[in-house]
């Protein structure tokens, strides 16, 4: 199989699902890619919220004392992989235990230490908590790209942390200069 991105990592990029991607886990999703190598890719969906699940539930289950602000935090659906694990996509500081640095201003952490700090109101200023993540095996993401399943744009702090989750898909596509309403549901190849 020919590699669409033979030497380019999509680490730090955002993937926006095309209308042709009907998988309910990724329909109109925006996924931040945390790692992308020859062995596959991993990321977290940033625009889907678990309805009825708040920080309090997570912190109480982990027996982590939490502030009122932390108790009301939204929890994101990070993807269909490791759905029983918590991941924190965050800005500086980036040196938490079990952190995967995505770039100069972004990391993905999976440690109790960062969750405890967030619960106390002492964590990173910018963050989102997800249950689960998204994963692709070797060559799988490249194949999906060749099938026009995703649009790609460099990750940006405003899309990840400032734009309300329901607006992230549209706004990320608009950053490319594309009207999301004009996207065709039919794939084409040049």
From TrEMBL:
What the entry lists under InterPro entries is as follows:
AlgH-like
Q: Which family does it belong to?
A: Belongs to the UPF0301 (AlgH) family.
Cellular component terms, GO, for this chain's entry? cytosol
One Pfam family, short name please?
DUF179
Segments spanning the bilayer are none
Q: What is this protein called?
A: UPF0301 protein MRX98_08500
Per its UniProt record, what HAMAP family does this chain match?
A: UPF0301
């Amino acid at each position: 199989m020919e590699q669409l991105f033979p030497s380019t990592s999509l680490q730090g990029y955002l993937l926006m699902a095309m209308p042709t991607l009907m998988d309910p886990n990724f329909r109109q999703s925006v996924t931040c890619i945390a790692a992308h190598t020859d062995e596959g890719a991993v990321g977290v969906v940033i625009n889907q919220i678990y309805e009825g699940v708040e920080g309090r539930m997570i912190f109480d289950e982990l027996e982590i004392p939490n502030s009122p602000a932390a108790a009301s935090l939204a929890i994101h659906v990070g993807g269909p992989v490791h759905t029983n694990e918590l991941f924190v996509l965050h800005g500086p500081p980036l040196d938490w235990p079990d952190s995967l640095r995505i770039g100069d201003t972004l990391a993905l952490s999976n440690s109790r230490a960062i969750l405890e700090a967030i619960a106390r109101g002492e964590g990173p200023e910018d963050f989102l908590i997800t249950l689960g993540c998204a994963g692709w095996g070797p060559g799988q993401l490249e194949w999906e790209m060749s099938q026009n399943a995703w649009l790609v744009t460099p990750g940006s702090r405003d899309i990840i942390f400032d734009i309300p989750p329901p607006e992230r898909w549209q706004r990320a596509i608009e950053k490319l200069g594309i009207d999301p309403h004009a996207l065709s549901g039919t794939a084409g190849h040049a």
